[in-house]
């Protein structure tokens, strides 16, 4: 058994969730916030049998927009501290896709 944490964009969350439901894959949807952009994102916590991990990866690939570069104005890039000459400097970040962690599960019970 594995536990997958997938950090995805909010706008990809509904399609991804629908696809998981369709496949009878259980998951918990968590509202999360990216540490760098400090923007809302979605974290899916998915408990899954080892042999279905690849199926989950395919669902994520199919439903999460491809990574692309975007320019943002990041007042938080300085850690929230106003630095006058840096505070509004545009920077390039990669967005989209999914950031996925796969963990071994020691035990799994429904009590
Ligand atoms: P954020 O932390 O808001 O990061 C959004 C995007 O900003 C990142 O996309 C990356 O392209 C860029 N970025 C992050 N830190 C940066 C930095 N120090 N300098 C320049 N650019 C930076 P992703 O890597 O796809 O990450 C998307 C979201 O996944 C992250 O949102 C965070 O919520 C989560 N995440 C990424 N890496 C993680 C990690 N090692 N552990 C836990 N969560 C992670």
What overall geometry do the principal axes of the alpha carbons give? elongated
> Kindly, what is the distance between the CA atoms of the first and last residues, rounded to a whole number of angstroms?
17 Å
Secondary structure tally, helices = 2
**Which hetero compounds are present in the coordinates?**
ligand 2BA
CATH topology of the domain at 2-66 and 96-104: Alpha-Beta Plaits
Give the neighbour order of strands across the main sheet.
Answer: 2-3-1-6
The rounded Rg comes to 17 Å
Decide which structural class fits the backbone.
Answer: alpha+beta
> What CATH architecture label of the domain at 2-66 and 96-104 applies?
2-Layer Sandwich
Beta-sheet strand percentage?
Answer: 35-45%
Give the class-level CATH name of the domain at 2-66 and 96-104: Alpha Beta
Estimated helix fraction: 10-25%
Spell out the helices and strands N to C: EHEEHEEE
Average pLDDT works out at 89
Largest beta-sheet details? 4 strands, antiparallel
Low-confidence stretches are none
Which features characterize this protein?
2 helices; 111 residues; binds ligand 2BA; two-stranded antiparallel ribbon; alpha+beta; 4-stranded antiparallel β-sheet; 22% helix; Alpha-Beta Plaits
Question: What's the arrangement of secondary structure elements?
Answer:
Elements (H helix, E strand, L loop, with lengths): L1 E7 L1 H13 L5 E6 L6 E9 L4 H11 L4 E6 L16 E6 L2 E7 L7
Antiparallel strand pairs: 1-3, 1-6, 2-3, 4-5
Structural notes for this entry:
With 111 residues, the protein is an alpha+beta fold. The chain has a domain at 2-66 and 96-104: Alpha-Beta Plaits. 22% of the residues lie in helices and 37% in strands. It has helices at 10-22, 53-63; strands spanning 2-8, 28-33, 40-48, 68-73, 90-95, 98-104. Strands 2-3-1-6 form a four-stranded antiparallel β-sheet. The mean pLDDT is 89. Ligand 2BA binds next to strand 5.
């Amino acid at each position: 058994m594995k536990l997958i944490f997938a950090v995805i964009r909010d706008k990809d969350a509904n399609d991804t969730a629908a696809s998981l439901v369709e496949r009878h894959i259980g998951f918990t949807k968590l509202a999360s916030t990216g540490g760098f952009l400090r923007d809302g994102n979605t974290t899916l916590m998915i408990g899954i049998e080892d042999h279905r991990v690849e199926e989950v990866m395919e669902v994520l690939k199919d439903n999460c927009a491809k990574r692309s570069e975007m320019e943002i104005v990041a007042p938080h890039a300085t850690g929230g501290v106003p630095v006058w000459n840096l505070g509004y400097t545009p920077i390039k970040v990669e967005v989209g896709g999914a950031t996925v962690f796969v963990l071994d599960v020691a035990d799994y019970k429904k009590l």
